[in-house]
Design brief:
With about 80 residues, the chain is mostly beta strands. The protein is built from no helices and six strands. The strands form two sheets. A four-stranded antiparallel beta sheet has the order 1-2-5-4, with no helix packed on it. A two-stranded antiparallel ribbon has the order 3-6. The chain is flat and about 35 Å long. The model has no long low-confidence stretch (mean pLDDT about 75).
């Protein structure tokens, strides 16, 4: 899995992985010490060729205090896990 900024001063990061990914699920958490906190974020995934990508709010951007971010806009971990 790869994570990269989408442009200078971007509000989003691009999280991408290669296919085939059959049987794997993207999960995120803000509390990695809790094994039950890992959840699928439910974001729209785009596929271009053999690469899938989602956009994730960047921690360098100023989060909107009126919105709830899942995962946390300031700290989040991601993983691909075989289901």
């Amino acid at each position: 899995m790869e994570c990269s900024l989408i442009g200078d001063d971007a509000a989003f990061l691009g999280l991408s992985w290669s296919t085939p990914d059959s049987g794997y699920v993207l999960q995120s958490t803000s509390t990695p010490d809790d094994p039950n906190s890992w959840i699928p974020p439910g974001w729209a995934v785009t596929q271009m060729g053999s690469v899938k990508r989602v956009l994730v709010h960047s921690s360098t951007a100023v989060p909107d205090s009126t919105k709830i971010y899942v995962p946390d806009a300031l700290f989040a971990l991601f993983r691909m896990i075989k289901q």
